[in-house]
């Protein structure tokens, strides 16, 4: 489902509020940063629309399969798949992974052989990061139909809270 359609259905203002609600739902935020009302809204919309809330620290299947195909379209046939701690990795064929029905939950990071591209998530978060040159990121994004925003060295891991900092 398109993120902007979801925001429209829910009345959630923007991706910042959605991120804050998702983080609140897993107790990753405390005090004034929490937004319990958005948690309730997310739960209601998911129930009404037959959607599953994403799991924190994991790439959702709805994202990873098109992303792998996008990475393949930009010229990569193999990808390293790593665990959340960066202690284990396995080289996998992208076409086999992209056509499998079940990618291991142990795979939370994906990166190309010469580190031209990295796909990962932040623990206690529900967003994924595609790290590469802007040209490569845009090519993968376009072929994968991804939505998001570009980061720079000023972007904080808790980007959605920037509006609360005043």
Task: Please provide the count of β strands.
Answer: 5
Q: What spatial form do the alpha-carbon principal axes imply?
A: globular
Name the structural class. alpha+beta
Helix share bin:
25-40%
- Give, in spatial order, the strands making up the sheet with the most strands: 2-1-3-4-5
Count of discrete alpha- or pi-helical segments spanning 4 or more residues: 6
Q: Could you report the average pLDDT, rounded to the nearest whole number? A: 88
Rg computed from alpha carbons, rounded to a whole number of angstroms = 16 Å
The profile of the biggest β sheet is:
5 strands, antiparallel
Which runs of at least 5 residues are low in confidence (pLDDT < 50)? none
Q: Strand portion, in percent? A: 5-15%
Spell out the helices and strands N to C.
HHHHEEHEEEH
| N-to-C span | 32 Å
Structure description:
By secondary structure, the chain is an alpha+beta fold. The protein contains six helices and five strands. Strands 2-1-3-4-5 form a five-stranded antiparallel beta sheet. Strand 1 and strand 2 form a beta hairpin. Helix 2 packs across helix 3. The longest helix has 14 residues. The radius of gyration is 16 Å and the shape is globular.
